[in-house]
Amino acid sequence: MRIALGQFNAVVGDLAGNAEKMRQIYARAVEADVDLLAFPELAICGYPPEDLLYKRHFLRDCSLALEKLAADCPDKTVIVGFAEGEVGKSYNSAAVIRGGKVHKVYRKGMLPNYGVFDERRYFNPGAKPLVINIEGLDVAVTICFDIWNIRWLRKFLAGDDRIRMILNISASPFHTGKIRAREKVINACANELNCAVAYCNLVGGQDELVFDGRSIFADSTGRLVAKAKAFDEDLLIADVISAADGTVLIEPVEPAARQPTDSVDEIYLALVLGTKDYARKNGFKKVLLGLSGGVDSSVTAAIAVVALGSENVVGISMPSEFNSPETISDAEKLAGNLGIEFHTIPIGPILGQFHKSLQTIEGWSDEGIAYENLQARIRGCILMSLSNRFGSLVLTTGNKSETAVGYSTLYGDTAGGFGIIKDVPKTTIYELAKHINKVGGRQIIPEDVITRPPSAELAPNQKDSDSLPDYDLLDKILKGYVEEDKSVTELVTEGLPEDVVHKVIRMVDRNEYKRRLSPPGIKITPKAFGKDRRLPITNRYSQNQDTV
Amino acid sequence: MRIALGQFNAVVGDLAGNAEKMRQIYARAVEADVDLLAFPELAICGYPPEDLLYKRHFLRDCSLALEKLAADCPDKTVIVGFAEGEVGKSYNSAAVIRGGKVHKVYRKGMLPNYGVFDERRYFNPGAKPLVINIEGLDVAVTICFDIWNIRWLRKFLAGDDRIRMILNISASPFHTGKIRAREKVINACANELNCAVAYCNLVGGQDELVFDGRSIFADSTGRLVAKAKAFDEDLLIADVISAADGTVLIEPVEPAARQPTDSVDEIYLALVLGTKDYARKNGFKKVLLGLSGGVDSSVTAAIAVVALGSENVVGISMPSEFNSPETISDAEKLAGNLGIEFHTIPIGPILGQFHKSLQTIEGWSDEGIAYENLQARIRGCILMSLSNRFGSLVLTTGNKSETAVGYSTLYGDTAGGFGIIKDVPKTTIYELAKHINKVGGRQIIPEDVITRPPSAELAPNQKDSDSLPDYDLLDKILKGYVEEDKSVTELVTEGLPEDVVHKVIRMVDRNEYKRRLSPPGIKITPKAFGKDRRLPITNRYSQNQDTV
Questions:
Q1: Does ipTM top 0.85?
Q2: What pTM was estimated for this model as a whole?
Q3: Which of A140, A519, B55, B258 is least surrounded by CB atoms within 10 angstroms?
């Protein structure tokens, strides 16, 4: 018996386009003579469709698209995820297509409603397992989260000990370390239920999320036998052999796909795909960004070039009197190394004119935070103006560390359409910079950019370290506070300095309004800012926590 | 038997402050010799606390605050909402305080997870009803959504026909028409269960939401006997009389509170409270806004003055060559009528300098959308600079109609901290303008501002009607598409012109990214932009809907 996992890049809402992709994959699967072809969770409409699911006509269109697809796939058994609407109820479902028709439907039983997931907002849980027989093998159809609670799953499938394989169609988003969690789940599923596992994941970028693919076959001993490509489409095919002793073995038909070398490589590939898909799926050919000669904008530009091509990236240097000759020349050097279009627009004259106009208001000054922020806002205006004129997407260059503590100018450097490194901690930015040079096989990002102490260059001799703790310490506190919801007491018990912990937490909490207004970026950590972490702006707990 | 409903303005996260308020209300209730005092849902921590509920120390602090409050309220029965954390599980609970201790706990059974509600993200549903006896009367304790599904509630309480009163503690946010829905629910609850109803609602603004109070007593015939103040704190006290035939009558101890005169008055009061609370709870004394002489900024300024006082509102006129002498003079006239600080900063010189600098890029032009948007962005920069310098909150002035179709400049007129009229359709803005003059008893907003055809004044002789359909038609389409999730077919069937419907829907869908980046504003309609309506930015359905 032969199974194929059709790991493809669906676009949310593109019902006709997604179906067309699946028809093409189906043709390849027929050629390879498979018995069963599986597509990811909600493959018909893409994941997550969010409030599109509140539109009755959307659910109806999903059904129509599914029926058309079924009619076009008459010769094999195909499993495909779709949003199923009934009167007053909706389900996250898997259709079993046979003989050109929707033969059976399985409804997801476990609906995740935490982190980035809102499935209880839309779906009702299903209550009945579905087991199909493929060439003599009993296969239980499951959807994503169904297999993450093995106790629930065992109970759900109880009473049917003929099941020899768990087929799982997923839309499991990436973060660093997620693949290990997934492999553990698949291994446990195989071991506990004594079944082989065929796991088909989605691939592609969708707003803040990147789905990393890496569909998996495991045999009934829990061994992971085959893994599809990471961050790319793939058709993973394997033969399934039932041994006499009940063991189910898996034999992949092609050599193993190359996998990311380490976690930095994983992040790099996630950022490249997330950037490419956000731009392309939203109709942008070109992107535009400010190049300061700092490491954040350098890494952003380098990733954009890999994602979109050097001909589609434009760098703008916007120096003021506070920018050093070194950073200005590094920006130009980087642009040269990347082979991108590069322009310089000094902001001094505009800043001077703003200052002259604002001086009519008593108390205005060309010193202090307002004047610093004004420089960032002028740069934002320039980039947005060029974006409007030439139709390019503006990339913001803020990293997770500064986004967390609000070390940025609202409507200044946060002005743009997409933030590639928004969820990347500053300490990881440096690793990415070195990785980019390694992957490129030459010094793309100048060495100085990586070694120079970071500065916003908005005032004379300014350094990040004037306002922020050392980034190693800052990132440790942020990981504990933002990603792990730890308290001051817990962080201090771990050995972090109490005064710094208090200061950082205060900054994080006070800047919720700023984050609420910053463009989407790619989630790469277990908890990103955005729909992954939903905190009130109006929130007095910050001032009092751990002190009640 | 005497009951008091302590409708008060809680602040999210301010555990100590909320408890202190409740202690003061308790003292008044003791003076009034009540037998039972009820506070709103999650009164200890405010509603909604969102991801604060993911912090274990937050849940622990809620429990500590509850125990302290209980110790301070030893002489009466008090019902208070709190977030209850157990190992791995959390509940939206009501504590029954008696004898200075938490005597019993009821856990909310129906958890809303639609619209602005995410309760399944945080809470597990409770499974057991709680009936307490107060002076011989059996009272079932319920929380908010529990009474909105009367079939569920009847089943949940089945088997206890001694219950004579339903006590419901709520945090039910305002939108126009909501009070009628609430009254219907309370009436149905009384009639179907043959019980009196005591309904205690929260009051106050919390980010996008305004809770309108209007706590209610209904007798067991379903008659609404007493209603607390709208959009203000109140302590509603009534005597409960059990008649021999099982009827439960209610007698309020004080004359009825004044209620809003009509739906425009309701919206007006919601905006005033929402503005006041957003500013005050976030520590802003002053606000700042651009005054164009148009109706949107005029209404925004007028509401800010009522909310915060004329001494705390600053208006800035930022004319260009495209602004007519009439609108410029109307802005000044409005500021005079409101008695607010007023400054004029012409943007011409700054615009000229930007143009000069941008001309170095081939293809830049002083005609077209980029040049128009630049003017709005310069204004945004000026306002944000003054905000940074003087610590004032910048109010944005976009209404719901233009927010919907993206008739605004990202990081231009959308730059600010809070949008008072963000959820108010343009047609309602005009009604509000007239209402403001009526309530003020004089012409606060100049007549011209109300009668002049609206214009963004970013190009010569520009009118909104050059780019947009008539606002009456636009608002009808938006209500159907945005608030009611209707399809093109449905809208056209209702008599709306197909070409305009298509055009408007395309504009709404294409501008999701812009809305994602606009500051919070006050929800006044059944579906506001923001967490009430969660659509993907990357979304191809818009282009194809109804055409599969």
A1: yes
A2: 0.96
A3: B258
Which residue's structure tokens are 């942008």?
A: A284
The active-site residue, picked from B21, B73, B84, B108, is B108
The helix/strand/coil state of A167 is strand
Q: Which residue has the higher pLDDT, B138 or B547?
A: B138
Among candidates B50, B380, B535 on the partner chain, residue whose Cβ is nearest the Cβ of A51: B535
> How close A546 gets to chain B, by Cα (Å)?
7
Chain B, 338 to 367: residues with Cβ < 8 Å from chain A are: 343, 345-347, 349-350, 352-354, 356-358, 360-361, 363-365
Report whether A226 contacts A189 (CB < 8 A): no
- Work out the angle between the directed axes of helices B369-390 and A369-390 (0-180°, nearest 10): 170
Query: Is A113 within 8 Å of chain B by CB?
Result: yes
Contacts with B49 from chain A: Cβ below 8 Å: 536, 541
List of residues 6+ apart from A242 with CB closer than 8 A: A1, A136, A137, A164, A248, A249
pLDDT of res. B548: 43
pLDDT at A545 over 70: no
Residues B540 and A13 sit within 8 Å (Cβ to Cβ): yes
The rounded distance, in Å, linking the Cα atoms of B130 and B141 is 6
User: Are the beta carbons of A12 and B539 separated by less than 8 Å?
Assistant: yes
B285-324 confidence digits (pLDDT tens)? 999 999 999 999 999 999 999 999 999 999 999 999 999 9
Which among A12, A537, A541 has CB closest to B282?
Answer: A537
Report pLDDT for B544: 53
A122 three-class SS: helix
- pLDDT higher than 60, residue B327: yes
Which of A45, A354, A540 is nearest residue B11 as measured by Cβ atoms? Answer: A540
What pLDDT is attached to residue A544?
A: 53
Optimal mutation site among B539, B542, B544, B545, interface A, most CBs of chain A within 10 A: B539
Q: How many CA atoms lie within 13 A of A413 on its CB side?
A: 23
| Distance, first Cα to last Cα, chain B | 63
Q: CA A501 to CA A489: how far, in whole Å?
A: 10
The tens digit of pLDDT for each residue in B350-400 reads: 999 999 999 999 999 999 999 999 999 999 999 999 999 999 999 999 999
Nearest to B114 by CA among A94, A113, A49: A113
Residue B543 confidence (pLDDT) above 70: no
- Which residue segments constitute the domains of chain B, with CATH numbers given? 2-259 (3.60.110.10), 264-463 (3.40.50.620)
A 267-306 near B (Cβ less than 8 A):
277-278, 281-282
Q: Give the model confidence (pLDDT) of A357-384 as tens digits.
A: 999 999 999 999 999 999 999 999 999 9
Spatial contact of A294 and A349, defined as CB atoms under 8 Å apart = no
The closest alpha carbon to A478, from A397, A402, A376, A385, belongs to A402
B178 catalytic per annotation: no
**Residues B71/B45, Cβ–Cβ less than 8 Å:** no
Pick from A49, A369, A381: which is nearest to B354 by CB? A381
Active-site positions of A?
41, 108, 144
DSSP state of B533: B
Which strand (E) or helix (H) includes residue A370?
A: helix A369-390
| Number of other CB atoms surrounding residue A534 within 10 Å | 19
Distance of alpha carbon B332 from alpha carbon B340, whole angstroms: 10
Instruction: Say whether A16 and B381 touch across the interface (CB within 8 A).
Output: no
Judged by CB atoms closer than 8 Å, whether chains meet at B358 and A385 is answered as yes
How many Å apart are CA A439 and CA A121, to the nearest integer? 42
What 3-state DSSP class applies to B51?
helix
Residue B17 contacts A where some CB pair is shorter than 8 Å = yes
Give the chain B residue nearest A414 (alpha carbons). Answer: B411
Rounded to whole angstroms, how far apart are CA atoms A381 and B378?
8
Q: Which amino acid is at A254?
A: E
Query: Would you state the structure tokens that stand for residue B37, as one six-digit string?
Result: 């005092």
